[in-house]
Amino acid sequence: MLQNLETLAREAKSWPFEQARNLLAHVLKKRLSDAERNAAKLLIDAGKADEALATFAALQRPVIFETGYGPSGLPHMGTFGEVARTTMVRNAFRALTGDHWPTRLIAFSDDMDGLRKVPEGIPHPEMLAEDLHKPLTVVRDPFGTHDSFGAHNNARLRAFLDGFGFDYEFLSSTEQYKSGRFDATLLTLLARFDAVQAIMLPTLGEERRATYSPFLPVSPATGHVLQVPTLERDIEAGTITFDDPTAGTTMVPVTGGHVKLQWKPDWAMRWTALDVDYEMAGKDLIESVRESGKICRALGGVPPEGFNFELFLDVEGRKISKSKGNGLTMDEWLRYGTPESLSWYMFQSPKSAKSLHFNVIPRAIDDWLAAIEAYKTQEPAKRIDNAVWSIHAGSPPTHTSPVSFALLLNLVAVANASDKNQLWAYFAKYLPEATPETEPMLDRLMGHALNYYEDFVKPTKSYRAPHDREKAALLDLAARLKALPADTTDGERIQTEVYAVGKAHAFEPLRGWFGALYEVLLGASQGPRFGSFAAIYGLPQTIQLIEAGAYGRLAEA
Q: 146-153, long-range: CB within 8 Å, 24+ apart, which pairs?
């Protein structure tokens, strides 16, 4: 699937391939000497990545991609975007290297972090209040389904990622700390404590600098993750001493899960311990990426390749805030649109701020469908840059929907449909062989269209009466359509009459005529290709609609 694409991948212009080429250069520089790197690059550029891996043992280790998740809340739009975009880069890298180089995507849960506040909308908040400051994997599960709140949210994350078919490896911060996987790097950080402090302290306020330590010990007395100064360090013994508010002066090892790192040192430690090669982050974390990169180098590691994506905005151009609730949730998008259309939206211009609101969903669906149709006839060099190549890992569907989402929305509106059966009845003549089984995408889109219409279109529909010239044109169109066979399902034939009427009545520009059709007949400022709509809705019903609109009856209803 992703093999034999090396030449196309080297020339591809879309951002996942740009990132993949940057990653390849990063990994070669990180793992090989200058002479080795040049030799390996020649082989890879010649489409012989398998020979490069066979020649240089350092290249045989998997290339590691990482995404992070804070399990104090449920997976959200940002979680999806980060994993989806990282997966796009991973697939581009696989194509660039002939799919010979093993890769891994780690979905890392920072579940050893202390619970800082009780999330809103959670059952039994009083129970969580009692467990504040404990690691999330110790905090009791208010839902009563798992051993801890962290375990509950981790399970939701995994179900979330599995539901979209992502290929990933889940890692729990708690398990990694307690298993000893991070021990060697934690001991290095203990030995280089002063170097880490020299990086972090200038970034903090005066009060915070006085108490800051990269180590957050877990209190043996209360189980709380403590933000307290490190009073003493014993590098040889691998311990720190601190003042426990409950138990007084206390000493714990930095290994075995007895401490948790502050998040920037923690990020750097993970990059080093897990040998992470690629991780992207939002624009709001640019400074954090920079500081964590410095710490990573201080620990003897190499910061990963990556890029900073722009954040989404609400419909009024304001930054989306979970606390304000001015954004769009995953469940909301999936009520009104397909997950593939969301991936399409995530693909587009990741370094540009974009609105993430309900009004972008219909266009995203139709753009995704149009891109699949375009893919079918594109030459290979164009195909690999088509967003659907990245969205569908090189294998976009060969068949989607015979009609657009915009047309379905208008069909729902005019037919006043409330279920799929009513919509399928309209398709009986237009597509007599079509069924939910033979047209599964159309069936899915019908469900989304019904939901979208009910929640957003229906409350805002506003019909108007036509002007005199528009009325004459509408009655002319009705007369012309009556001259056609009543069972006409040729949308182009109907569209020809629509154009002819617009020209005959001197609409200049012609889009004024189509605007009148939409506003008078559909109660909206935009609409589908009218001929296709009429073909599906039925010619007799369309004629009745036109006459009702011409005489202002729709505006009076």
A: 149/71, 149/115, 150/71, 150/109, 150/111, 150/174, 151/111, 153/71, 153/72, 153/73, 153/74, 153/109, 153/111
* CB crowding 198-221: b at 16 or more within 10 Å, else e: ebbeeeeeeeeeeebbbbbbbbee
Residue of higher predicted confidence among 75 and 315 = 75
Measure the CA–CA gap between 357 and 187, rounded to whole angstroms: 47
> Which of 323-327, 435-439, 497-501 comes out lowest in average pLDDT?
323-327
pTM over cut 0.90: yes
Cα–Cα distance measured from residue 512 to residue 194, given in angstroms and rounded to the nearest whole number: 71
Using the CB atoms, write b or e for 497-534: b if 16+ within 10 Å: bbeebbeebebeeeeebbbbbbbbbbbbeebbbbbbbb
Alpha helices in 105-227 (DSSP H): 125-130, 149-163, 173-179, 183-191, 193-200, 206-211
Residue 410 CA to residue 495 CA, distance in Å, equals 16
3-state secondary structure of 9: helix
Which amino acid does the sequence have at 39? A
The predicted pLDDT at position 320 comes to 65
Supply the pLDDT for residue 132: 96
Which pLDDT belongs to residue 324?
55
Q: How many residues does the chain have?
A: 557
- What confidence category does residue 318 fall into, taking pLDDT thresholds of 50, 70 and 90? confident
List helix spans (H) across 212-262.
Answer: none
Please choose, from the candidates 422, 369, 409, 416, the residue with its C-alpha nearest in 3D space to the C-alpha of residue 533. Answer: 409
Q: Does residue 327 register a pLDDT over 70?
A: no
3-class secondary structure, 4: coil
Mean pLDDT lowest among 86-90, 186-190, 315-319 = 315-319
Q: Is a pLDDT exceeding 90 seen at residue 528? A: no
Structure confidence by residue, pLDDT tens digits, 339-378: 999 999 999 999 988 888 899 999 999 999 999 999 999 9
DSSP conformational letter for 135: B
Collect all residues with Cβ–Cβ distance below 8 Å to 281 and sequence separation of at least 6.
Answer: 288, 289, 306, 308, 309
Convert the pLDDT of each residue in 234-292 to its tens digit: 999 999 999 999 999 999 999 999 999 999 999 999 999 999 999 999 999 999 999 99
Task: Tell me, rounded to whole angstroms, the distance of Cα 1 from its chain centroid.
Answer: 23
Residue 223's Cβ-count burial label (10 Å; 0-12, 13-18, 19+) is: middle
In contact, 397 and 405? CB cutoff 8 Å: no
- And the tokens for 339? 């997950």
Radius of gyration, CA atoms only, the chain: 29
| 336, 452 contact by CB (below 8 A) | yes
Give the three-class secondary structure for 243.
strand
d(CA 145, CA 122): 14
Buried b (16+ CB within 10 A) or exposed e, 38-56: eebeebbeebbbeebbeeb
Between CA 434 and CA 442, with CA 440 as vertex, the angle to 5 degrees is 70
Output the CA torsion 316→317→319→321 (10° steps). 20
